[in-house]
Model the fold of this input.
Amino acid sequence: MHELPKFPLILSPTPLHRLDRASVALGIDLWIKRDDLTGFAMGGNKGRKLEYLLAEAIEAGAQVIVTCGSGQSNFIRQLGAACAMAGIHCAAAVMEMPFEDEMPTERGLRETGGNVLLDHLLGVDLHWNANGTWEDLYAAARKVAEEYRSRGYAVYEIPIGGSSPTGAYGFYQAAKEIPSGFDTVVFASSSGSTHVGLQLGLAETRVLGFACDPEPEITEDFADLGNGLRRLLHRDDTVTAKDFEMDFSAVGPGYGIPSDEGDAAIEWLAKAEGIFLDPIYSGKAFGGLKRRIEQGEIRGKTLFWHTGGTPALFARYDSN
Done:
């Protein structure tokens, strides 16, 4: 197939290097893929998806792009920056802490600082909502989109995290930056497009996602997303939920809430390698990876894909 239209945002390929001190400490050949160093909007994996999503929105004649997420969403921050570069208005429905079934009792991240500060600098129109379910959040985003349409704007809607077949295509392309020889690629897995793109792009490598959402059925959504990407690629194979390896052991208290294991992993990697992880995604994933290495469950040449999210470190309730 021909490649999808692209609006350049990131510096790629992003660095890939060995974690020498961490490898010695853990007794494994451990490497890292640095999507925290994309050079775009303080880094993060979402820029890869946005290069194609933004091109799609421009082709559709969008004047306003609407999405949704948690208040400290990394995707909204990077979408806001992409929209600023393209001269498109950005709006988002947000909640402090969306949830699946029951409202968690633990604290998440603050509604100020971190990504929220950057959103304001970028001019993102944030529509705050009381905490509710993901379906409540999606409905709020549809309401924001309809409000803009009623005022005569051409609106382009992007699902949470940029997780559409087009967004997954960005990570299918990213997989080409990984040389052969890795036994396992590990990363934080949430709304799905990162996981789906890598799964379809790394056919000969074990692809392991550490879930950040306590939703075991989420791989069913991944299968739908994967089949959408498959159609984009004109592939004849079919993707099923069983094709996606997910480890739910590192979720901690819930989505959007830091965990003790994740916090310990953030501090451990900072002291071992001078690299900062985030408390919601990459910290939890690295904590789970470290534990499974120590338990002898992951061996061989292993790549940790750092998906970014560093601004969230400055939205912790206990930060000064």
